[in-house]
Amino acid sequence: MEAVRDKAVVVTGAGGGIGAALARRFATEGARVVVNDLDAAKAEKTAAELGALAVPGDASTVVPAAREALGGDIDIFCANAGVGTGGGPDAPEDDWALAWDVNVMAHVRAARELLPGWLARGDGRFVSTVSAAGLLTMIEAAPYSVTKHGAYAFAEWLSLTYRHRGVAVHAICPQGVRTDMLAATGAAGELVLTPTAVEPETVADALLDAMAEDRFLVLPHPEVAAYYTARAAEPDRWLGSMNRLQQKLERTDGR
């Protein structure tokens, strides 16, 4: 893509999984890529493989260091780092706080840093890795589902507020992706996500297609559009179908 070549790109959570696939695809397209991850060894390993720049650390505060590494402005920021916190209202307060901080506030803090420059020059692109859980929900994972709804809402707000001023926004909403996070979802993931899981590279391809079409919503699993429509049109029927999944999981677990 000519729109990507020579662009300065930052991908958070890029030590593996979707983030590494995004960084790899951008590097292949000729972008100058910063690989960010809380795990410094993973960030450096991915960066070395791609001929990219490693800027490890907290995704919430990476923008200034990434600018310094790139020697200038950031053109595309991929807010990809996330945590898959499970449980319900009984999940520890620290788990809820971590999910909110990483899945939502890291996006807010990055946008706060990036927007003044993007608005001044009339150009910039913010990519939010949300999850289909941000459009729908995920059983057994209230903190994850709630905060991913928040991440989607923030991406949507950015788009409707700034698109006329040159800021493009994309929300990536896959279902299961074959990553370490999927492996950690346990029985709920096995039931709901694993049967249709895709490779991280499929997510990267879907993003590049959406960028080429200037499309906000990125659906590596196209069927999510129909689920989202059904959820809006017939919420009780949709909730009933999700409750049946919950009951199936409980029978599987012997609850």
From TrEMBL:
Top EC class of this enzyme: oxidoreductase
Enzyme Commission numbers on file: 1.-.-.-
Entry-linked InterPro entries: NAD(P)-bd_dom_sf, Sc_DH/Rdtase_CS, SDR_fam
Gene3D superfamilies: NAD(P)-binding Rossmann-like Domain
An MF annotation (GO) of this entry: oxidoreductase activity
Presence of the UniProt keyword Heme in the record: no
Alphabetic keyword roster: Oxidoreductase
Recorded family membership: Belongs to the short-chain dehydrogenases/reductases (SDR) family.
PANTHER family (UniProt xref): 5-KETO-D-GLUCONATE 5-REDUCTASE, ALCOHOL DEHYDROGENASE, PUTATIVE (AFU_ORTHOLOGUE AFUA_3G03445)-RELATED
Protein name: SDR family oxidoreductase
Protein's organism: Streptomyces catenulae
